[in-house]
Amino acid sequence: MKQGIHLEYGPVAFRDRSTGRLFLTRSTLVGRTDAPQTVVDGVTYPVVDVDISSDSHPFWTGTARTLDSEGRVEKFQRRYGAAGVRKEGSA
Q1: CA 7 from centre of chain
Q2: Residues 31, 48: contact at Cβ < 8 Å?
Q3: How confident is the model over 63-76, as pLDDT tens digits?
Q4: In 1-91, which ranges are E strands?
C-alpha cells in the first residue's frame, strides 16, 4: 500500500441533531480540524452532526406513516371493475 495517499482513519462521534444521541464509530472524518470536540469516558472525539440516524429515522423508530392505506389492486379494481381484469386462459 502506498504511504501518504490515504486519509486519516480513526474514532469519531456522530451526533443526531434531532435527538442529541452520540454514536461512536470510526471514520475518515477524524481529520477535520473545524469539527467540535466532545469528551466520552475521558477520551476526546471530533463530533460530526447528522440530520437522520437510526435513532430518529421513522422506519427504525416505528413512527413511519403510510400515505396510501388502500392497496393498488383494490384501487385498480374499483376504478376499472372486473372488465379490466384479465382471466387466465384468455388472450
Answers
A1: 24
A2: no
A3: 766 666 667 777 77
A4: 10-16, 22-27, 37-40, 43-50
Instruction: Specify the residue for cell string 381484469.
Output: 85
Tell me how crowded residue 50 is: count the other CB atoms within 10 A of its CB.
13
- What phi and psi, each to the nearest 5 degrees, are found at residue 67? -80, -35
Q: Residue 22 and residue 49: Cα distance in Å, rounded?
A: 9
The pLDDT tens digits of the residues spanning 8-64 come to: 889 999 999 888 899 999 998 887 778 788 888 898 899 988 888 888 776 767 776
Nearest to 46 by CA among 60, 31, 58: 31
User: Could you tell me which residues come within 8 angstroms of residue 43 by beta carbon, excluding any fewer than 6 positions away?
Assistant: 11
pTM above 0.70, yes or no: no
